[in-house]
Amino acid sequence: MVENGFEIKKLAELAYLSVDETQMVELKRDLKEILGYMERLREICTEGVTPLFHPDPNTQNVWREDEAIPEDIQSSFLEQAPSSRGSRVLVPRFVGSEESNG
Amino acid sequence: MASQTVRGMRDAIQLKKIAPAALLEDHCRRVREENETLGTFLSYDSPDHRAKTGPLAGIPFAAKDNLVTATLPTTCGSLMMKDYRAPYTATAIERLTRAGATLIGKTNLDEFSMGSSTEHSAFYPTCNPWDQDRVPGGSSGGSAAAVASGQVPFALGSDTGGSIRQPASFCGVVGMKPSYGAVSRYGLVAFASSMDQVGPLVRDVRDCALILDILIAKDEKDSTSVSHPDAEGFYEAVTQCPDHLQGVRIGVPDEFLGAGVDREVRGLVEEAAQNFRSLGAEVERCSLPHTNLALPVYYLMASAEASSNLARFDGIRYGARVSGERVFDVYQRSRGQGFGPEVRRRILLGTHVLSAGFYDAYYLKAARVRQQIAFELNEAFESFDLLLTPTTPTPAFKRGQHLDDPMEMYMADVCTIPANLAGIPAISLPGGFVRGLPVGIQLMGPRFGEIKILKAAEVFQRATDYHENQPAGRREGSR
User: Fold this and answer.
1) B111-125, B168-182, B311-325, B461-475 — which is least confidently predicted?
2) CATH code for A1-44?
3) Residues of B in contact with A52 (CB under 8 A)
4) Res B474: pLDDT
């Protein structure tokens, strides 16, 4: 479970969230309380019940042919990038860094 | 009062009692003057004064700041999106603009819609116009307070677990969450995609129907949007319905009136039930035992969806970036510093319940109970046309009262969540006052049962005047 700091740390890594020591203590306390409340779901029998992930189970993927639209939106997207050069978004180096994943 | 409704303003423009430019200027001035006190808006602009045509020509409105706009910033109440300008505009806003309405600003919200008090906005909280020491509810608290204070005649909100209806209740206005899929989510920044729905906050039920006529339409840009069988027929249905509710069966589920619901709030619901009875409806108590589990189901599933939806905010293509040596440092620092405490909490909760070893026990279990809740609600609509409940267990609470205890804050949504889990429509309309504060009653209906809800709500408003009350200091019409 999440009772110890190590697990919160692990969750934070999985979620790509930097969390400092103070936040870690608060999050541990809050998640413990919240998950404790969620335990009441265990009391109910759900055997044979189909899970409902979406309120409209009939929703289907909608397909259409790709279509080129003459619209110059590249610059408006690039303007939002924290760092860009020319027509490219700049990112820190990740190929050849020490770890291949977070 | 009438002059503050959308209809009142539309009539005044048509009869040339007021020029559209003057109406807009008056509302913009009000926003500028009052924002420092109320904190309702995160951005506003001098709107374009070109003459508009259409059913809402000249009517000003506001939109929650999680609906993207090309003309104004879209912050989602988050430092992560502080300077974000979207390259396009949400369909819901586009539709209103095409109908002639003018967007005058973007309203405050709990960060990424996660909260029930608008205190989780990264910028500043919003005050309840009825009592500035109290919260307006949330997460669409800015939109509800802007309508209640007369800054705009209507506003858009979004409702994932009650985020339109709960603030509508706290601020004494009408708020409606339509059936899932009825209003396009294109351009709504996603929180929990299987529950998010855009809807209006308005002064009365007729305005609600009027706005729904514009908003509800299938949108090819949202694959979950659907064709509503009653599209464009809401206003006509509401204006032409008789003054009685004969033949309408209303259920009042016990589970929504139990422990945790303020005694006086319970009294108002009982009074409303009596009102409906005297208007000709058959009103009966009923029981929906699984809805007692709606809150844990919601927080598990919505947090799981949020942890996935918010993965896109990584400081690379848009949003705040905190520099780091490696790309993973950038992700972690940007997200760690860009997201506030409630968002972090829910991302971690969602990550946990989706992780190997916990998925079955939490997420899958919750999805099965969600099925049971939806089944129970749908089954109830075989015996009843509508369900009547409180919208909120209490009137607006004091600022800071629940800020340190997330579970207490989550309880504010206990009555509104079931409708989101099942995808059914629900409205909150003013049902009276508790200790001087407005409290809403909620009507839920079957999927696509918007007209049933609106008619009953309209007949209730014809017979009562709770919706005509306004916070002290607000006068009819312009100041």
Assistant:
1) B461-475
2) 1.10.20
3) 367-368, 370-371, 374, 421
4) 59
